[in-house]
Design a protein that fits this description.
Blueprint lengths: L9 H8 L4 H6 L16 E9 L2 H17 L8 E8 L12 H9 L5 E7 L4 E2 L12 E8 L15 E9 L2 H9 L6 E9 L10 H6 L14 E5 L15 E5 L6
Parallel strand pairs: 1-2, 2-3, 3-5, 4-5, 5-6, 6-7, 7-8, 8-9
Length: 257
């Protein structure tokens, strides 16, 4: 039997492999010498849905992701990085992904354009601030994370077109507004279960004042935004941002109308 697929150019094979999860891509290295190192040049890293059920599984997963990243040629870009981890066993509260920040910084330094991060664990994780000044990011999807208070001073996402936030906690409402203001080319926005960590502020902090008196944002307009799905049940959203959208879905409190 003739192996015709192996005769294809490396670029074509890498494009085909980019549609598979990374674990499957790595497995192709055992097929033949032709495939042995091909997986190292695939520009997409998708670690799929990983359910960790004990400490050993947690260790093996950490080791696998780290080894995949360190094995790659530094000159080969990483265009897409997806990570979805669910901890579903007793005692998971004391577990963590020790190399998480290093992984993210690694892919950011290699020109990543698509970043999808979901770490479902009791006690949300804080994101590395380096995400918020990445000039190459085009798509950013975040699930179950805290945003560090210092991120507001470095925000700049000039290439970002798609922003999806799900169960994200910002220090203050103004930090979220600053994020929007620094995404001038945003086209697609999805917000679900956005929270603000007012507990870290002084007892005299006024939620309403933070949400309503941000006069500097009242005229914020994202001229390229054409699609939005916004759940603003727990915070005030600047409606002018949505003035150019062609597709809109919103969930709001009656008191906010």
């Amino acid at each position: 039997m003739v192996d015709t697929i192996s005769t294809l150019p490396d670029a074509v094979l890498c494009h085909i492999l980019s549609f598979l999860e990374t674990k499957q891509v790595v497995a192709t290295s055992i097929l033949s010498n032709r495939w042995k190192h091909l997986w190292l040049s695939v520009p997409v890293l998708d670690f799929g849905l990983t359910r960790l059920t004990d400490k050993d599984a947690n260790f093996r997963f950490n080791d696998f992701v780290y080894s995949v990243l360190l094995s790659r040629d530094a000159a080969v870009p990483i265009k897409s990085f997806s990570l979805y981890v669910i901890y579903n066993y007793n005692g998971c509260v004391n577990l963590c992904i020790p190399s998480f920040a290093k992984w993210i910084n690694f892919v950011l330094q290699r020109g990543v354009e698509y970043l999808d991060l979901n770490v479902d664990i009791f006690g949300w994780r804080t994101l590395p601030n380096t995400i918020f000044n990445c000039t190459t990011l085009v798509v950013l999807r975040l699930h179950f994370f805290w945003i560090d208070p210092s991120c507001s001073s470095i925000l700049l996402l000039p290439s970002l077109k798609t922003l999806h936030l799900d169960f994200i906690t910002f220090p203050k409402h103004q930090d979220f507004m600053s994020l929007l203001a620094n995404c001038p080319n945003l086209e697609d926005l999805i917000i679900s279960d956005l929270w603000f960590d007012y507990a870290k502020d002084s007892p005299s902090f006024d939620y309403e004042e933070d949400s309503l008196s941000c006069s500097k944002w009242k005229n914020l307009s994202l001229s390229n935004l054409t699609k939005a799905d916004v759940d603003s049940t727990y915070f005030h959203f600047p409606m002018k941002v949505l003035q150019n959208v062609q597709s809109l879905s919103m969930c709001i409190l009656t008191a906010q109308v």
